[in-house]
Amino acid sequence: MIELRTKEIYRFLGYRNITPSKEVDERIRLCVEKMQEAAAPRCFCRSFPVKQTAPGITEIAGLRIRSRNLFKNLEGCDHAYMFAATIGMGIDMLIKRSELSSLMEASIYQAAGAEMVEAFADSEIKKIRAQEAEKGYRLRPRYSPGYGDLPLQLQTDFAKILDMQKWCGISLTDTLLMVPSKSITAFIGCLKAEAAESSPHRDEDYLADIVNPIEATGLSVKEATGSQNICRNALPETSCTNCSMASGCIYRHC
Amino acid sequence: MRKNILERLGKEWIFFDGGTGSILQEKGLQPGELPETWNLSHPEEIIELHLGYLNAGSHIFNTNTFGANRLKFRDNLDEIVTAAVNLAKEARKRSGREEDAYIALDIGPTGKLLKPMGDLSFDDAVDIFAEVVRIGAREGADLVLIETMNDSYEAKAAVLAAKENCDLPVFITCVFDASGKMLTGGAPESAVAMLEGLGVDALGTNCSLGPEQMIPIVERLVKAAHVPVLVNPNAGLPKSVDGRTVYDVDPEAFAGFMKTIAGLGAVGLGGCCGTTPQHIKKEIEAVTSLPFRAPKPEAHTVISSFSQVVEIGGGAKPVIIGERINPTGKKRFKQALVEHDIDYIVDQGLQQEDAGAHVLDVNVGTPEIDEAELLDEVLTRLQSVLALPLQIDTSDPAAMERALRHYNGKALINSVNGKEEVMHSVFPLVKKYGGVIVGLALDENGIPDTADGRITIAKKIYDTAASYGIPKEDVVIDGLCMTISSDPRSALVTLETIRRIRDELGGNSILGVSNISFGLPARELVNSYFFVMALQNGLSCAIINPNNQAMMQAYRSFCALTAQDENFLDFIGAYKNYKTPDKRVSEAVDACRSRVLNALGISAGDVKPYDRLPVGNASFEASKGEFSGISGGAGTGPTGSSGSLSRDQNGSFGASGGTSSQILPPGSSPTGSLSGSGQSHHSKLMEAIERGMAKPAAAATKEALMTRSALDIINQDLVPALDIVGKGFEKGTLFLPQLLMAADAAKAAFTVVKESMSDSPQESKGMVILATVKGDIHDIGKNIVKVLLENYGYDVIDLGKDVPPETIVETALHQDVKLVGLSALMTTTVVNMEETIRQLHEKKPDCKIAVGGAVMTQDYADRIGADFYGSDAMATVRYADELCEKGLL
After folding, report:
1. Which of A81, B163, B850, B856 could be disulfide-bonded to A188 (CB atoms 3.0-4.6 Å)?
2. So what's the architecture of A6-248 in CATH?
3. Edge-to-edge strand order for the sheet containing B848-852?
């Protein structure tokens, strides 16, 4: 069972410091009960060496990614996990069914589903944190494609590299949305404990302070979210011509 | 000469190969690199991979085509698959195993999820698989192995594609998690029912779990299956260790578990991710030490949905088939069909599920509509929200085929009969798509009036089905229920037919029970008694209205009496609060009395002093005129003042309960206390809405409709109540869920109002399009706005989520809509919102655009050219009202 924080569910429901009525609490409790039954949490991750070759450029798992936010998030890390987690399709089915019968329940499922996948991801990352601690490493807060200037296009790379469909049952729509909808992908940077301790920053500082790509990049929306900021097959031994982005790639010279 | 694999499978141990991807990674496959590209770039490594397994002793080995489909290889699919088959042939030649090794064309999932949860259509999925099958078969694969299927619907698409595009044997293995479920909810039993219906030659499970965790799933598969069972587990679960993916079950341990699995009745064994030629070699050594023993499957009659099976006959409980999704004699239902109100129809399904139906009959045949189209749509919607198996009910073979093709399971099919022409058009469909077919015991000569005649036709139906390869288990005979009002002996004939189907033919039966009483009064009496008689005579399935209490009482009592309700769970669950007819009658009388009083605007307590009035002992049947003396008599002397006095006291009477309960039962006291606050009856509906109570809101609306017009109720009660809640929300004194509860209650009230107005055209304030823009599937906000707008009297065209700009523009133009609401919840989809706005402004300049969603701000809304930014759901309603007042909608 995944422990859910009621406060977070309230927050996702648009909590405004109003004490929810007993009826609301009772409905939330009933919905969460059904969700616990329907949930099928799965997660998978792989770790890769990280190289930061130039300001704003991060290389990991054969990808060369241009993103100031990711660069900052992984700065000083020598390896990072690519991580995917989901609480399964059962939650989407509950949402779908409740949309017909009760808007109230649909919104609770949405809110509690968001909290559930967050809580599940956190609990899995806790395990990773413990493993890494044994080796003298600390974790940076997880960072997901689509936030700040990190392109959502990276979802396709997560899907391939983690074989997400096989190991988590997560697939992507043509528009790069994950199904089941309550799923998370993220980079999780690992750095030596000494390096972490000497850093003047707190964890929050490694998350994008501006989550909107337009403001994060100062570019147009199209440019900010497009795929020209990712170069695939960026490993030195593989040729750039195989890359599906080869024609428009700004790193073409590589 | 190689024997056909089907001559061997099920008669001796047959071994499959092991992991591919995991071995190629060892050989240097890069993260994210597609393994199938190696067919062209590293052919020798692929041959080596095959040789490893051939030398270990595998009989069946897979081409390196798991992910080969046009979604991943747009330009060179043919080349990739052709190379894969040829490399397999070359490996077989080099290993000297030409005589006893078989090349399986390996087909994995498309990588996309099918609709409705994902965005790939079923028909497109079939096309994608078909392409691969044609190439593989052309190049000389010996069989098709569909594997790692984690969605039953996609599995069906793949099997259909294989069956329609080659004559090779088709094997399939699906992925179940530790709880025995597929990703989309499928169970081993439901998957078996559907896949066997489609005619696969072998089925089983692979991937996901290690061999030990697979054991309970294998047991369930073997128990359910009639074709050989295949098992290809992983070498345990993958873990990331120092950047490498490792598996935790070594060859020795793997072989041990596989021996256990072989002992359970699986006859085709291999491995999946993480297994190596070593694993397979050890497995073969361990399993071949066991004597081969093929399981002997029992015949079952089973239908399924994507996740559930319902067994018919064979000692299972009689099956209840809900009959309500059928337009016959139902005005509101016909209207819903014509208006394309699929939600209403689906809701009928949900109600029947709650009432206890096991299967739902789906019939949408009515003039004015395209039956094939509508049946397909209704069925698709139903199976996206309901887990009950469906009975596809149509006499149109084209509609039947389309529905069967898109049904996610093994359907009950209604129906065929003894007419040659009908049998020859329906049986091929049953054979191709699977299903249990209802055979009506009638033929070219009509309905026989003796049981002998009906049994003869039943035999003919069984025989003809058998000639198409449809076993007797997949036929259920309808003994035909004709009304006793036209032939007093007809029930006896039907009962005899049912009994003889069971006793003489050893078959299963079905009846549309309600027909028996047509033309008689008190039909539920006749129906429920006849129902029990039919059950006692061996009826296996009954098509009834599960919302009818008498029928369900008869059914549950029968099951309790015949030891078919373990621990009486069903019976006790349904009737633990049962009330005797006397009690129900007296409660109904009381409820009715209070309704009448309410409708007349007299609050409950007002009746109390009536007893003390000089006019004396008039009963409740007293005329309206006499009552009006109390309620309307202010200022007319002593009577009037006594009335108003009692009204003031009424609140305390209602609260204390005591004396007033002699006149009104406790059940009606809320009415007393609500209306006792000095407000008239419409406050009751308002209060129900404000407090978010759906059922009371519906009940109050029904009451109000006795004296007031629908429009009056909407304008005086519904909208004002929503306004109060909406203002509370806007001011921040109410929490979103409370607003939504109120909206749900208002929706329940609207449903009642709508039902009452189903004859008259409904007025609308204007039409509004709502959509979540392309790229975004977050639609809760949009749905909230939709319900609120509907509550406030707008017609909403809900285009759903992930909607391309073009669709929105087209709809706006086509329906001449003047207000479009767009929602986006992700920063990345703002771009699509901007594009939608640009196109709308260009092509339909008189259309206003409201935007909202978590990422929106007034600033963004201005920047992308929206006309209005809705900071919350109510804001959009206010904007619509504003436009409406200005006459812009």
Report:
1. A81
2. 3-Layer(aba) Sandwich (3.40)
3. B795-798, B767-772, B819-823, B848-852, B868-869
